[in-house]
Every structure is written in structure tokens, then in C-alpha cells.
Amino acid sequence: MDKYYFLVAELPTLFFDREPEVTIEYFLSETEKWMSSRDFQILSQVDINNYLTKPQNPRVLRDFQQFESALRTDLARFREAQKQKTDYKPASIPQSLIKEGNPLEIEIKLLELRWKLLDEMQREHHFDLAYLILYYLKLQILQRYMSFSKEKGMEKFQKLYEVIYESGDRKDNGN
Q1: All residues at 6 or more sequence positions from 138 whose CB lies less than 8 Å from its CB, including other chains
Q2: Could you tell me the CA-to-CA distances from 167 to 102, 131, 154, 173 in Å, in that order?
Q3: Residue 128 carries which DSSP code?
Q4: From CA 81, how far away is CA 75, in angstroms rounded?
Q5: What's the domain range around 88?
Q6: 142 within some domain
Q7: Which of 4, 42, 101, 152 is the most exposed, fewest CB within 10 Å of its CB?
Q8: Which has the closest alpha carbon to 3: 158, 125, 147?
């Protein structure tokens, strides 16, 4: 497996609650310059939302995908149990993580849980494809985290409110 000493050394450290110094686009353009075409093809196909494991995926990616699959299964079962007014104790995460807080707070806690797992996994890898895969997954987490904005949320709410208000207004005028 190739080692990417110079590439990894040039990457800024990522912190969970801070905007990254590099964008995903910049990261991919730089990695494409330094990596073998085979490794870059593998890296560029990594998607945090794709949790279906494939045997040909690198071990580190399969491990993350298995965690993500278990997490999503637990979340779905927990939510279904809430609808049915029954109890369900998640196997992959502490119940308090998904029970306490509003939906945004819970989503942030879940992103942080993923981040901590990636941190643990990254400790075993240095300067290799696995390290870059984990780094890329972290960038994707940060992209999602940074998309949460009070201003953007209020804008979306206002637009939805206007649409609902206007459609209600049309119904009233039509009767």
C-alpha cells in the first residue's frame, strides 16, 4: 500500500466544532495530484451516506459502514418503538444520546459520535489510504455540521411559512 507522507503532512488538523481550513473540493483536487489513480478512485467514491458495505472496500471503510448501518438500524427501531409507545434500548449507542434534546441537538450528538469513532480508527493509521479515507469522512461530517445555521434555518422556515400561508389564503379566497 502506498504511503502519502507529504500529502498527509500538508493537511490541516480537523476539529469537530470548527470550520475546516480546506474544502472537500480542495481536498479531492490535492489528493488526486498525489495519489495513485487506483487509490484516488477508491477515496473519491467514499460517501458518508453510503453505509452499505462491499467486500472490495478497504477494511477501515467497511468498519465505518458497519457502525453506520448499526447506528441507523438502532435509530429506526428506536423511532418505531416511540411511535408504538414501546421500549427499545439501542445496542450501538447510549439511549440518552438520542432521547435527550431537540432534533438538532441529537443530530449534532450523533455527528460527534461518528467523529469520535473516526478519531479512534485514525490512531491506527498514518500516511496511508485508510488515513485519507477517515480524513475525508471527517470533512463530510464537518460539511454537514457547518450546514446547521440559525439564519439558514430561519430562512427555510420563513419560505415554508409563506408557502403555507399563501396556499391557505388561496383556499379562503376560493370558497
Answers
A1: 14, 115, 118
A2: 29, 51, 20, 10
A3: B
A4: 10
A5: 5-149
A6: yes
A7: 152
A8: 125
CA distance 19 to 38: 30
Instruction: Say how far residue 175 (Cα) sits from the centre of its chain.
Output: 47
68: Cβ–Cβ under 8 A, 6 or more apart, which residues?
48, 51, 114
Asked if the structure places residue 136 within a domain, the reply is: yes
Give yes or no for residue 153 having a pLDDT over 80: no
Write down the pLDDT at residue 167.
Answer: 78
Q: Give the percent of the chain with pLDDT over 70.
A: 94
Residue 151's pLDDT band (cuts 50, 70, 90): confident
Give mean pLDDT, residues 131-157. Answer: 89
Number of domains in the chain: 1
Spatial contact of 1 and 128, defined as CB atoms under 8 Å apart: yes
By percentage, how much of the chain surpasses pLDDT 90?
Answer: 79
Per-residue pLDDT reduced to its tens digit, 30-64: 999 999 999 999 999 999 999 999 999 999 999 99
How far apart are alpha carbons 105 and 98 in whole angstroms?
9
Whether 169 is in a domain gets the answer no
Q: Is residue 170 part of a domain?
A: no
Residue 149: which pLDDT band, with cuts at 50, 70 and 90? confident
CA distance 31 to 128: 12
